[in-house]
Amino acid sequence: MKFASLDLPYVDKKFFSAIKRLPEISSIFIPKDNPSTWLEAVERGKNAELLTVDIPLKVDRKLIDALPHAQAIFCQAVGFDNIDVAYARKKGVKVYNCAGFNANAVAEFVFALITSLFRHIPAAQAHVRAGGWSYRHFVGRELYGKTIGIVGSGNIAQRIASIARGYGLEVLAHTKHPTKEKQQKMGVDGFITLEKLLARSHILVLAVPLTMETRHLIGKEELQQMRDDAILVNTARNTVVDEYALAEVILEGKIAGAVLDVLLEEPFYSKEASLQIQEMIRLPNVIVTPHIAGISRESSETLGKIFVDNVKNFLKGSDTNCINV
C-alpha cells in the first residue's frame, strides 16, 4: 500500500520511518511544505490508499472524491472537524484520530493559564523587566475554594477535573450526553444544566470538540449568565465561543476576563481580525497563547506512537480509534 501526507506533518519523521518499515507499505511520501493549491494536495495523494493530514487542511467532499484510491485517513490530532467524516464513511474511507494523546498537556496548561490570570503573572513579569519592583498592583486571587465549571466529559475534561481537586476547587460539569460512566470518570455527583454551570462558576472551562452541537455553544446569551467575577477558558476550538460576543462582554466589564489558546483569526493581528477583537486581546485581563495547549515533548511522543498504532490497527482490520465506523 502507498502512504502519503497531503500537507506538512506535525508528527515527527521518526514515526513515519516506523510506518515505512511495515511490510504492507510499498512507498511513503512526506512533503517538505504545505500545498499551495488544492490541486497540489490532490497530486500528493491521488495514488495512495493511506493518507494523513494535519488540522489546517480541509478534507471536504471535493477532495475526498479526488482521491479515488483512499481507504483510510489518519488525523495527527484529537480533533477532526477539518474532515467530512460522514462523507468519508459513505465513500468507504475510514478516519482515525489520536484520542487522548494530549489530555494531560492541555489540562496542565489550563491551570497555568488560570493561575497566570488570577495572580497577574504576565503583568508582574513585564513590570520587573521594565525595572519595577512593587507588589501593590499585583494582588490577585486564589483558586482554593472557588468553583470550576467544566463543559465536556472526555479525556481532557476528566484530567482537568482531577487536577482541580488538588487546588481545592469545587468541580461542576455539564455535558450534552450524560452517562453514569462519564459521571464516574469526571468524579461528580451528577451533571448539571449549562445555565446552572454558568451561574455558579468562577472559572468556566471549555473542553469539547467542535461539532454542529458545540459551534457557538457559548454566545452572548450564555456569557451574560456568567458571574461578573468569572473568567472563561477556551483551549478547545475557536468557534465553540462567539468571539465577538466575548469581546463585547469583556470590554463592557461584564465578566472578569478570559484565557484563550484558540482564536477565530490566527494570528489575531491579521487584516481580517476586527478591531474589537484586537482591543480585547490587548487587555490586561485577557491572556492569549498561540494554540499550544496540547503541545509538549511528552504529548508529541505519545501522538507519534498512537499515530503509528492507528496505521497498524487499520492494516490488521481493527477499528480502534476509528471515528466513522
Question: What this model shows, in words?
Answer:
The chain is 36% helix and 13% strand. The chain folds into 2 domains: 2-101 and 298-315, NAD(P)-binding Rossmann-like Domain (Rossmann fold, 3-Layer(aba) Sandwich); 103-288, NAD(P)-binding Rossmann-like Domain (Rossmann fold), CATH 3.40.50.720. The protein is globular and about 65 Å long. It is an alpha/beta fold and 325 residues long. The protein has helices at 13-20, 38-45, 61-65, 85-90, 103-118, 121-129, 155-166, 180-186, 194-200, 220-223, 243-251, 275-281, 297-315, and strands spanning 2-5, 27-29, 50-53, 72-75, 94-96, 147-151, 170-174, 203-206, 231-234, 257-260, 286-288. The strands form 2 sheets. Strands 7-6-8-9-10-11 form a 6-stranded parallel beta sheet, with helices on both faces.
Question: Can you describe this structure in just a few lines?
Answer:
With 325 residues, this protein is an alpha/beta fold. It has helices at residues 13-20, 38-45, 61-65, 85-90, 103-118, 121-129, 155-166, 180-186, 194-200, 220-223, 243-251, 275-281, 297-315, and strands at residues 2-5, 27-29, 50-53, 72-75, 94-96, 147-151, 170-174, 203-206, 231-234, 257-260, 286-288.
